[in-house]
Amino acid sequence: MAETAFKSVLVANRGEIAVRVLNEARESGRTAIAIYSEADAGALHVREADLAVCIGPALASESYLNIEAVLDAARKTGAEAIHPGYGFLSENAAFARAVIKAGLVWIGPPPEAIDAMGDKARAKELMIKAGVPTLPGWQGADQSDANLKAEADTIGYPLLIKAVAGGGGRGMRIVRQASEFDEALASARREAKSAFGDDAVLIEKFVERGRHVEIQVFADQHGNTIHLGERDCSAQRRRQKVIEEAPSPAVDPELRAKMGADAVAAAKAVGYVGAGTVEFLLEEGGGYYFLEMNTRLQVEHPVTEEVTGTNLVQWQFEVASGAPLPLSQDEVSLDGWAIEARLYAEDPYNGFAPQSGLILSYDGDVSSAGGRVDAGVETGGRIGTDYDPMVSKVIGTGASRAEAIASLRAALMDDPLLGVTTNRDFLLALLDGEPFRKGEICTADLDLWAEEGAGPFAKPDADRRAVALGAALLGAAPQGVIRSGSVSRFDLPLTVNGDALTVRLEQTGPDAVSVGFETEDASSAVALLGEETPGEIAFRLDGVDARARVARATDGALHIALGAQIIVLEEASPWGADAASDPSKITAPVSGAVVAVNVEPGDRVKAGDVLMVMEAMKMEMRLTAQADGVVAAVNAQQGGQAANGAVLIELDMETQE
Hints:
Largest sheet: 8 strands, antiparallel
Helix content: 25-40%
Strand content: 25-35%
Shape: globular
Low-confidence stretches: 574-580
């Protein structure tokens, strides 16, 4: 087949993957073209592009998911090829066909392969025919609730309900007993309908102590298909991957060859071309089952690149141009270890609620040896709630797994994102935990720890050193004058990570204070030594010199990164608690869609009852009653939108008997 060269690439995506592909396009001598929504006008991927076109408003369905708008941008810029990234339209066969019909090069698999693997029931049938091991389960045309319940009872519990058109953990629910099935089915259908426009599901046996091991495959247009080893993605929460690594600590060379051969067979069964991933569930005894195939480049592909010495995006360009694969299977080798953590704008200690705001400090770079960061944001950017909350991927590498963990830990510590709450501290706690260190984490572990509030889910107390530093930054004076001018010391009421705390402050000299805590008899001496580099404060605490990253928000709040913890500290508001702490008012934790309203005025509710369900950035959030009461008002409708902090439901706490 003759090569089809292209000189320009339009990236139909946003965030870190758009930045990566745009940079690779330029590195290969091609024009890099971006698209963006009105919400992303100032985004990093737009600034990284040679050309950029606004394709619509923030709503994804009117911008990044609008096929005609994407193709119109290609026409305006003279783009010759389109790379879909991951998410959005990347696994949309209709989009692939439209790109090809428009005479453009589609940097992805054939539409027929996308169709085949996108339908989970059909994909499972194809895998059975190809001799690839599959999980016991049921899939079929009869989607009635009664039939699904009957099939579930036949399969037995625990089981997994999975959206037929799903992916990325959407539309999946674990059901451990029959009494939970109806609610789980309704929730899975609702999420599947919202995410994919199709509420059909299949049912599979759920393996309690399984590991998620996936194989990277690559195929060209000449009939060559290879695999590039495995990635272990067992550290996941609610079916969403948190940390991924290559190779897997549970896979030896013999098992790797066997799983790799099955992954290649799976790809060949659908005539695959390009980069793809075949996902397996690995049992403790070494047995494994096909889960699904992702017909695109995966979020976690950098760990494969790091251990194989390849550039998979450049491979995609070459294969789409008609070139053969640059390596044969015998030439593929794994060297060293790589571990990737996904940095999300979310609050792990508040149900992983998505966060938004202005980034006060973030380089999106790493100074530690062997590290790598694929970032989609930087200092001065704004994180909204319109899209997925992942802001970057941080990768640690090394000759051994221990070295890779150390590299990743250093990379997370070196460049803390300040201004918006992230899951960084949670990731560090997970990396430091014994189960991860030993390579023993299975797919269900994080959800179990979440239920128990154990392991990395245990909210740590605010670092006393960081609080003392913050108090000094708020209360110390360069001339050593007393704050009030009439007393030698004073109480300073603070809010630390949302919790109230009062410290006793006494100024002992220029830029020096003594900080006393309510729970301790002794006080600490803090001296500010100055800003060594922009955003890095040097200080002396009880005779020990240290440094911390500090950023001050426009509202006066201090964002302080010290050690493995980031805190947000500010002087307490004189107005006291806000509506979010009032049990009579149920407020929106983020801006998002209202997908279910379970009560109406006059209903009696008990503490713990789910009153409403919201969805934002691929996450369902259940809003529950904090106390018994009677519903006085419902201020939102199913299918509507709610702003962050809006009072959605009001309860009358007085009339409850």
